[in-house]
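Quick one:
INPUT:
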């Protein structure tokens, strides 16, 4: 399904990250779909995910409290798995409530990406997610609330493992700003009369991504592990041949 048809499904920030030139070929299309939340999906959208995209698994990167408030719609024949990437309460929390009240949003977002790269819960979660990909070998969706930070870093990891070049990785990451434009405006409109100008400005920052955020995560990896490959084997505890196996399965 092409990007125009995907956008018609009504799922914010839904896209197929396959098709990019990768190591000795292209990343397979129709396998890796990233998105925002899958809350209260209409019947026709659920049918499309089931029959047209043939989704076999949903990976939900949100906290249990987020899921309780806005649970995913069920997709027939698709298994569901919650991987709580930012599990410790004291860690940076990319939820709408905490974003609204944080007056230093840009600094805060860098701390989120430090935790996505280095925290125990994120490393354990991404390890589980990446290993599951090799086992599943079928179409899947991975998402969080907005599909921009926890999901954005997951997509960047996946693309980097595939051997996709840096420009394409960052272009995919930044495509969230366009994909979420309408949804973000609706959120800003909702809070326009309830927040001070300073907090509304902070909220606007929180709803978008910047290349510097993703670069910060990769810089943290380089600083703490020396290289991306060391991060995979030491930080995520993936097998030494993980990249080879991934590319054998998903590069065509």
């Amino acid at each position: 399904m092409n990007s125009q048809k995907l956008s018609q499904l009504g799922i914010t920030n839904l896209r197929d990250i396959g098709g990019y030139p990768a190591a000795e070929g292209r990343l397979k299309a129709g396998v890796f779909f990233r998105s925002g939340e899958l809350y209260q999906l209409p019947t026709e959208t659920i049918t499309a995910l089931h029959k047209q995209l043939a989704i076999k698994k949903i990976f939900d990167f949100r906290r249990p409290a987020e899921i309780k408030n806005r649970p995913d719609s069920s997709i027939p024949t698709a298994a569901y798995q919650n991987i709580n990437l930012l599990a410790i309460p004291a860690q940076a929390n990319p939820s709408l409530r905490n974003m609204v009240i944080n007056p230093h949003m840009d600094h805060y977002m860098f701390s989120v990406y430090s935790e996505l790269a280095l925290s125990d819960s994120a490393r354990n979660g991404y390890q589980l997610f990446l290993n599951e990909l090799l086992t599943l070998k079928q179409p899947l969706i991975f998402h969080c609330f907005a599909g921009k930070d926890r999901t954005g870093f997951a997509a960047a990891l996946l693309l980097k493992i595939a051997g996709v070049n840096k420009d394409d990785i960052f272009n995919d990451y930044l495509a969230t700003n366009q994909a979420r434009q309408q949804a973000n405006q609706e959120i800003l409109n909702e809070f326009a009369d309830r927040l001070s100008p300073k907090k509304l400005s902070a909220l606007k920052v929180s709803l978008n991504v910047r290349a510097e955020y993703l670069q910060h995560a990769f810089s943290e990896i380089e600083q703490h592990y020396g290289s991306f490959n060391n991060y995979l084997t030491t930080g995520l505890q993936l097998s030494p041949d993980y990249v080879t196996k991934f590319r054998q399965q998903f590069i065509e």
